[in-house]
Structure to design on (732 residues):
């Protein structure tokens, strides 16, 4: 993954270009940012089969967000691996796939049950505790272009060691912290120390008011990251 | 009083009270319809009538010379299609059917787009798949959005953004069958029992209670045609008296005669013969004598095309193909023949061998929703656990978008849970039906129809256990399928 800022506003806004073309050989075209990610269900945008996807504006619609947790009931990581990863399984070679565990619809974080062992999600197949090792197994088999780390209040699972276990794809560190500005700042500082390619700013759309968002975003985007890193605010668009 | 629930599996409700209630409802319906018609006639109805009348007369004058057969003027010869047979193999034929909106190649399969749409597929995809004619259900369209609105919006083609050909049914069959089928037979409540009396056929037409507002409605042959004239499909169907084939006796005979009486009312009511083709429907159950009378009666009317109705309703396969064989043999060579409600690939191959040209059925899309794919070997149930790790496409020999992109394992995780599952399976299944139609057409044109039939049967019955009815039908069709049949111990006569 390569990200370059192409223009800065007088304030903090920036325009950039994201090149995903990577080890997986997919998504050959650069994507201009700010960019919207299309939400998906089991990897495909709702009701839009891949033959119809090109009728959406291009290349703006070439970035798809998916939840690996949609595949908890199958196909198994082994099967997905033998198919050749998610791009191959979905027939979407021209598209960038971004893995985020939470999807705000079918796979909601369940923080009360999240513990040291793993993160808990409310899914269509019931409540599921997902261990980092399981998550990494899914990521390895799916081979997304970008993937965000499994998130909780403290991003304990982002470590250099774990990043090395990934089968390619750029890692985005997850920044959470709920509605607490200090927590968010601390989280951002910790994540910024890690060897990650970008940041997933999550923990939104869980009951906070619209007025609370700007200071929370401000707290994490202010100075912790270098300019050439992509900050992605994923849940905002579908809430 | 004849009512549909006297028939077959429909339970006969003989309480006087119930019958009186039906009678009252029907009278109310008739009054309502007549009042509406009077109101319409007193306003702009007359003008319309005059305009259409003069137009029709002009059309008749245009083509009159060719319609005078042995001194007798045939008044019903206006048509909006051309049917050119491009190739034959014994009774089978491949033709080019030119309709106002599309030049079709037959044999062809028509998917059913109940409310102006085939669930989960766009009209672009249907074109891509190679779909030539879509069937619209008059009953559903007349209830919602109503034929008046469709007309106002420029007809069904425009309304559903479908540039190719369309066919609408008369609406009668749906009223009778859908309303009754919606009732749960195993657990009839009082409300459901009263629903049984909702559809009723008399000489006037089909009376039913609107499922939208509960008001009684009467669908006459005239009204069915008026609605279909407003919807504007390339092919419209005459209102027939629908009876299940599994019934025998005087009801079948009555239905056949009534269908013939109604065809004249349909022809008289048809105001757009230059843009829409009215097809007559051969009825007569499984009785060869009745079928014969009906075919002859319809052929006398010199209609643009003919349908074989009242089949695919649970009759045994031998009776089914024999009726098709009898009708196709008696119908004119130069007119399209449409077997209604037939959609199993095997049935289509058999009917095509017997000289039929058009088919429709909800089966390919309905079975897709239940997770079943059509494949040369028969069907593939994607719900089956064995599919969970199967990395092959649904059908490795299929060139459709789904088979080019997806594994059985992926489809397995979608079917019956996600809309995308039935979307992708419907796509494949319709592609399969279109490919079957293309293969039938080209094999007949290229003079290798028997080879095609044999390879089709070989894939479906690799052990050679081709059903006896298929063997019998192919015998009559003059197609030698001995190479793909295991020798029967007793067998064919
Ligand atoms: Zn296919």
């Amino acid at each position: 993954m390569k990200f370059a800022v192409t223009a800065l506003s007088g304030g903090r806004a920036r325009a950039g270009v994201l090149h995903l073309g990577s080890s997986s050989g997919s998504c050959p075209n650069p994507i201009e940012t700010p960019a919207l990610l299309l939400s998906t269900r089991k990897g495909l945008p709702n009701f839009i089969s891949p033959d119809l996807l090109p009728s959406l504006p291009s290349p703006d619609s070439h970035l798809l967000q998916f939840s690996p947790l949609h595949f908890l009931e199958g196909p198994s990581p082994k099967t997905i691996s033998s198919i050749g990863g998610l791009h191959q399984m979905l027939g979407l070679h021209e598209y960038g796939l971004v893995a985020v565990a939470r999807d705000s619809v079918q796979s909601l974080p369940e923080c009360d049950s999240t513990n040291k062992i793993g993160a808990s999600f409310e899914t269509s197949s019931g409540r599921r505790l997902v261990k980092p090792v399981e998550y990494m197994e899914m990521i390895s088999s799916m081979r997304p272009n970008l993937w965000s780390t499994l998130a909780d209040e403290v991003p304990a699972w982002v470590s250099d060691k774990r990043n090395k276990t990934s089968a390619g794809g750029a890692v985005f560190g997850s920044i959470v912290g709920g509605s607490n500005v200090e927590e968010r700042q601390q989280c951002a500082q910790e994540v910024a120390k890690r060897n990650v390619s970008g940041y997933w700013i999550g923990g939104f759309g869980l009951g906070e008011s619209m007025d609370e968002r700007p200071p929370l975003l401000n707290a994490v985007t202010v100075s912790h990251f270098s300019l050439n890193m992509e900050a992605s605010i994923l849940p905002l668009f579908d809430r | 009083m004849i009512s549909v629930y006297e028939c077959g599996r429909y339970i006969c409700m003989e309480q006087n009270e119930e019958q009186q209630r039906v009678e009252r409802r029907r009278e109310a319906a008739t009054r309502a319809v007549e009042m509406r018609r009077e109101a319409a006639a007193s306003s702009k109805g007359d003008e319309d009538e005059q305009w259409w009348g003069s137009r029709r007369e002009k059309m008749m004058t245009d083509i009159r010379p060719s319609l005078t057969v042995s001194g007798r003027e045939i008044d019903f010869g206006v048509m909006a299609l051309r049917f050119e047979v491009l190739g034959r193999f014994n009774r089978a034929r491949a033709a080019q059917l030119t309709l106002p909106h599309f030049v079709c190649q037959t044999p062809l399969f028509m998917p059913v787009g109940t409310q102006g749409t085939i669930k989960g597929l766009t009209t672009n995809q249907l074109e891509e798949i190679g779909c030539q004619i879509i069937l619209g259900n008059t009953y559903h369209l007349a209830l919602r959005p109503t034929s008046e609105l469709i007309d106002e919006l420029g007809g069904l083609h425009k309304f559903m953004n479908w540039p190719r050909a369309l066919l609408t049914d008369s609406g009668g069959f749906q009223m009778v069958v859908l309303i009754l089928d919606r009732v749960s037979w195993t657990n009839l409540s009082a409300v459901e029992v009263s629903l049984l009396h909702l559809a009723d056929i008399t000489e006037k037409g089909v009376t039913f209670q609107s499922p939208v507002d509960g008001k009684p409605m009467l669908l006459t042959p005239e009204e069915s045609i008026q609605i279909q004239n407003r919807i504007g499909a390339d092919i419209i169907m005459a209102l027939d008296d629908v009876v299940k084939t599994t019934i025998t006796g005087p009801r079948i005979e009555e239905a056949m005669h009534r269908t013939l009486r109604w065809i004249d009312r349909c022809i008289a009511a048809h105001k757009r013969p230059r843009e829409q083709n009215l097809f007559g429907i051969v009825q007569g159950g499984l009785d060869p004598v009745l079928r014969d009378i009906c075919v002859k009666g319809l052929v006398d009317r010199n209609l643009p095309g003919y349908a074989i109705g009242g089949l695919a309703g649970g009759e045994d396969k031998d009776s089914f193909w024999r009726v098709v064989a009898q009708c196709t043999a008696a119908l004119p060579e130069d007119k399209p023949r449409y077997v209604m409600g037939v959609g199993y690939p095997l049935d289509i191959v058999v009917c095509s061998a017997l000289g039929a040209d058009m088919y429709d059925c909800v089966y390919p899309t309905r079975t897709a929703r239940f997770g079943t794919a059509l494949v040369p070997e028969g069907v593939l149930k994607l719900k089956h656990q064995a599919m969970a790790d199967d990395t092959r496409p649904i059908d490795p020999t299929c060139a459709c978008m789904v088979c080019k992109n997806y594994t059985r394992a992926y489809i397995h995780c979608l079917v019956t849970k996600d809309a995308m599952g039935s979307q992708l399976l419907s796509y494949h299944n319709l592609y399969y039906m279109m490919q079957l139609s293309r293969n039938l057409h080209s094999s007949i044109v290229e003079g290798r129809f028997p080879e095609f039939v044999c390879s089709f049967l070989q894939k479906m019955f690799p052990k050679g256990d081709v059903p006896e009815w298929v063997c019998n039908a192919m015998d009559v069709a003059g197609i030698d399928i001995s190479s793909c049949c295991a020798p029967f111990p007793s067998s064919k006569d």
About this structure: Residues 102 and 164 of chain B are 5 Å apart (CA to CA). Chain B touches chain A at residues 120, 122, 124-125, 128, 388-389, 391, 401, 404-407, 409-410, 412-414, 417-420, 423-424, 427 (CB under 8 Å). DSSP finds 18 helices and 18 strands in chain B. The longest strand of chain B covers residues 82-89.
